[in-house]
Write a structure and sequence with these properties.
The protein contains six helices and 17 strands. With 241 residues, the chain is an alpha+beta fold. 30% of the residues are buried.
């Protein structure tokens, strides 16, 4: 009979990330066969009944949302500085959601929220390539030639990045600013900002417009919608490629 660590079982059920599951265990929110368990080394089998906040794992309904994250919101479940987090926008959702990946505090745009741990881990794993489309307002008036290093695959902090789609959408010569579109599939910290700064065009404002087939059409900052079954299947297929 296979045994697995309790926090891994909770994460696999989609209740929370493994790290957050550990926090819930030590906080006394988890029971095994009706008994509160606080020991992180605890192992369980498929015959044990695990519950989080009194709700058995089997009854946790998997949820998938596309969220339009506003600026000045933390991509986290909690924040020790009392700033707004992405989970504050889902008060009606009973399940414990968490973000797939992250967006910077001052970056707005598309973010997937779910309680399906396997789905989240699949989308975030470095070997999976799902395009993410960003639109940035930058200082300066870049030409196509100046953005070519991004299309060829620029090296940042000693790491060669994959080639990106990069093009200028518009230029404001009076204000000496431009709107640039960038499509990448990696997810390094501050990657888009670092890429554009590296070619001489610091970012003033940044938004993620799309994740794979998911676009923000019809949503305003702070809004969300459920993913369709077709979208979930398509994301899985894209990740598996």
């Amino acid at each position: 009979m296979n045994e697995e660590r309790l926090q891994k079982v909770i994460a696999a059920a989609g209740v929370a990330s493994r790290r957050h599951a550990e926090e819930m265990i030590t906080a006394g929110q988890v029971t095994v066969n009706g008994v509160v368990v606080r020991e992180l080394g605890t192992k369980v089998t498929s015959h044990d009944e695990v519950a989080v906040d009194g709700v058995p794992l089997a009854k946790q309904k998997k949820q998938y949302f596309l969220f339009y994250k506003p600026r000045s919101v933390i991509t986290a479940v909690t924040d020790n500085k009392d700033r707004r987090t992405v989970t504050d926008f889902f008060p009606e959702v009973r399940e414990r959601l968490y973000p797939v990946g992250r967006l910077d505090y001052d970056t707005s745009g598309a973010l997937i929220m779910t309680n399906d741990g396997d789905f989240a881990n699949m989308l975030m794993h470095p070997k999976f390539n799902i395009d993410k489309r960003y639109v940035a307002k930058v200082n300066g008036l870049p030409t196509g030639a100046q953005l070519r290093p991004l299309r060829d695959g620029i090296t940042i902090e000693g790491r060669k990045l994959a080639p990106a789609h990069a093009r200028v959408l518009s230029r404001d010569r009076a204000k000496q600013t431009s709107i640039v579109e960038l499509v990448i599939h990696q997810g390094l910290n501050h990657q888009v900002k670092k890429m554009l700064k590296a070619v001489g065009f610091p970012v003033q404002k940044l938004a993620r417009e799309a994740i794979g087939p998911l676009e923000l059409t019809g949503l305003q900052p702070g809004d969300y919608r459920k993913l369709t079954h077709t979208e979930i299947v398509e994301l899985r297929k894209l990740a598996e490629k």
